Automatic annotation (TrEMBL):
GO cellular component, one term: mitochondrial large ribosomal subunit
One Pfam family named in its UniProt record: Methyltr_RsmB-F
GO BP terms, alphabetized: regulation of mitochondrial translation; rRNA methylation; tRNA wobble base cytosine methylation
UniProt key word S-adenosyl-L-methionine: yes
GO MF annotation terms: RNA binding; tRNA (cytidine-5-)-methyltransferase activity
Similarity comment text for this entry: Belongs to the class I-like SAM-binding methyltransferase superfamily. RsmB/NOP family.
The SAM-dependent MTase RsmB/NOP-type domain, residue ranges: 44-334
UniProt entry tagged with the keyword Transferase: yes
Segments forming a coiled coil: none
Keywords: Acetylation, Methyltransferase, Mitochondrion, RNA-binding, S-adenosyl-L-methionine, Transferase
Full protein name: NOP2/Sun RNA methyltransferase 3
SUPFAM superfamilies the UniProt entry points to: S-adenosyl-L-methionine-dependent methyltransferases (SSF53335)
Cellular compartment(s): Mitochondrion
Length: 334
């Protein structure tokens, strides 16, 4: 009986995987990732083996929750071994595909935890936020990275921007669910075109995060409308143009000496290494920052693919470490 049910659920899943997208990825990623693509593909098309990390909210800490996570076999993200890992940021990972239930949004009540792909914390940690700094999250929705930044430090000013109207409302709700009123006063939430923000606020920020719109490999594989998926794929080549424009704006918004982190949730070299190479070739005052140490200290929890860049890391989904895709690059403005 169980075998029949399992076979049926696998057939249903196979129906949901978008063949147009899978065929396109197969062609591109088997070239870019080589043999590693076989494992990556198997993880990406099997939501049953996906993992979910639990980021604790320091503004509504629950000892019972933390105790429960320990009992369930969760462990903390490489605490203490990372070059920058503030004690206030507590994230728990499971080695199995366990998923905690999501908490409901209730006005006036702060949530105790945020569920996320653990690899999405790496761009936040790479930014090395300190108390009192001015930080810009240029493409901030749905808000997970903004919430994670606020677990790390108390910024003097945090500007969360999101251009898409629907995602902007999602961002506002996320912040309301996790951040107490006193901190809300140092946060600005805007709905601007990120490409214009650098001109509007030149040289303003100590740190800038550009978690750019990209080919979201996980969600694209499960597109329910194959015509829409085919359209996305045909327009995919335009994404690096947008990503470069967003980075140019971020560089303008960054003060000299400030740090910029660029991230995507795609495996695509055109949207990752090629975008960063274009920026480095265009600016004499933008310097790559070596982040290989992060890969070395996080190898217990994440699998990394070579990027050919000292300033860039690529987390690829693996069996038992189903995090990513996540590309992270770190730059400094001189």
């Amino acid at each position: 009986m169980l075998t029949r049910l399992k076979a049926k659920s696998e057939r249903n899943l196979a129906k949901r995987i978008c063949k147009v997208v899978l065929d396109h990825f197969e062609k591109q990623y088997s070239k870019e990732l080589g043999d590693a693509w076989n494992t990556v593909r198997d993880v990406l098309i099997s939501p049953a083996c996906w993992q979910y990390a639990v980021l604790l909210n320091r503004f509504n800490y629950s000892f019972e929750l933390e105790k429960n996570l320990h009992l369930k076999g969760y462990h903390t993200l490489s605490q203490g071994s990372l070059p920058y890992h503030p004690k206030s940021m507590q994230c728990y990972l499971s080695r199995t595909p366990d998923r905690m239930p999501s908490e409901r949004h209730q006005i006036g009540n702060l949530k105790k935890y945020y569920l996320l792909n653990a690899a999405s914390l790496l761009p936040v940690l790479a930014l090395e936020l300190r108390d009192g700094e001015k930080v810009l999250d240029l493409c901030a929705a749905p808000g997970g990275k903004s919430v994670a930044l606020l677990q790390c430090a108390d910024p003097g000013y945090l500007h969360c921007n999101e251009y898409d109207g629907l995602r902007f409302r999602w961002l506002k709700q996320t912040l309301e669910s996790f951040i107490p009123q006193p901190l809300v006063d140092v946060i600005k939430v805007s709905e601007l075109d990120g490409r214009d923000l650098g001109d509007a606020q030149p040289g303003t920020f100590d740190k800038v995060l550009v978690d750019a719109p990209c080919s979201n490999d996980r969600s694209w594989l499960f597109s329910s409308d194959s015509q829409k998926a085919a359209c996305r794929i045909s327009q995919r080549r335009n994404l690096p143009v947008l990503q470069i424009e967003l980075l140019r704006s971020a560089i303008k918004a960054l003060r000299p000496g400030g740090l910029l982190v660029y991230s995507t949730c795609t495996l695509s070299k055109a949207e990752n290494q090629d975008v960063i190479s274009e920026i480095l070739n265009s600016y004499s005052n933008i310097i790559p920052v070596d982040i290989k140490e992060m890969a070395r200290t996080c190898s217990r929890d994440f699998t990394f693919a070579p990027t050919g860049q000292e300033c860039g890391l690529l987390v690829i989904p693996d069996k038992g470490k189903a995090w990513g895709p996540m590309y992270i690059a770190k730059l400094k403005k001189s």
